[in-house]
């Protein structure tokens, strides 16, 4: 054996998790915090924090710095007047930052524990359906939150369940200036004038969300601010009234989100003024508007900002229209390569006017050459009574940038030319394509998908094909079954008119973990599914058989099953109960039986053996 091999050979057992260096533990905590939704991420982080002393500091630190604090959160601690150390909290509040206004203190909610530090268990019967409504009364379905144990308060130890958090340590903060509580200046039960803290921003805040009538010129924005978000109801100061409203933006601002439905001439002028004052350090800009039409000042300010911010790495615009009023060179100054994402949502598909379609083609000509993630959503235009014409989209799709990781395209009309020109290259990892029911004679969605399927990169792990009429043995279906990526992990064929015979053409890869067959014409569950499949969605298959035979063929590793909006009833429900009880599907933890014929007795039985039963 060479000296190099000897030096690198293990001489003892691998280090245990708690023996890893602190820098590795910090990185692990950050990965957990960025991998799932905020609720799930903090549950995992906090349970890991309590697993061993060495995990506590890095996990708690990341949990605090990655959680949004909102003073109007409903999860304010409820004190037990008879026991000083007891508070009533809901399991759903775990991982949240909550505010106790009685003592002006923020807390991070840890996994709920008793005074003996034992995890608080749910009371027996919490997971059962309230049968007092009666078998024929479905009103209880509107009160799922009350039945769900996650939303019921349980007594817990204040000392071991609530971690005091200094206000200055909060990194993500939401300030709401809307007077939702009435005309007296209150907001969600809080008197904004009586609590000065509610106008104060944490000293080291990195992300700030503003909603309501935002007095931006009165806020002391910290230099640490990295991301600024204006919520859907945000109304900015009128620049004609407050000329210096936007003069104090931090020079280090890297991300700006503007999403508002409160549009009007004054607010749109304010948004344009805001864009004019954004520093050149900006890297990510997300703009979302509900009106569909942007005033010329906003469009002009956007074009100038793109020129002024050479490091712009992400751009998202939702709700845009009237492209004939746009500067044709708006996107020409974007980096040719290296952008993380470019997303556009065309709310009305260019309004159907020929001049807008031509203007859109000129705008697309300025797109980057490659981006990491590209998303294009064009809804069908009913405006002016015009139909979507597939041929008018040929020159647009041909100029799409090459997406190196994620590509998402939704068009009102597809044909074989579009399918052949859609840019598909390795190492593309995620592909989502959506069609629409179309009356355009030039449309040929089957031909489009038949041209796309042989070109799907083998690197693809996530494929979503929604609303494609490819069932009943079409050539597109055969091409897709033949060219399914070998390492695919998630596949969605929602609303594709598929039958059980169509599914027989597929040989499911062993890597498949999620399969979505919602809204098809299936009469029974798919057969020969990979044994490691974790999620299966069969909802909205109206003819799904109410027999237990296909339940027995489901994979043993299945964790989530959706059967909502089907005709399944008690036979399927009891078969699921037996499969879990007899360990044929021991990992099943969530079942959706919304809008089925299942009785309350069987739903209650499912509650007792499965962690979550969705039923509304």
Automatic annotation (TrEMBL):
<protein>
    <submittedName>
        <fullName>Uncharacterized protein</fullName>
    </submittedName>
</protein>
<dbReference type="InterPro" id="IPR032675">
    <property type="entry name" value="LRR_dom_sf"/>
</dbReference>
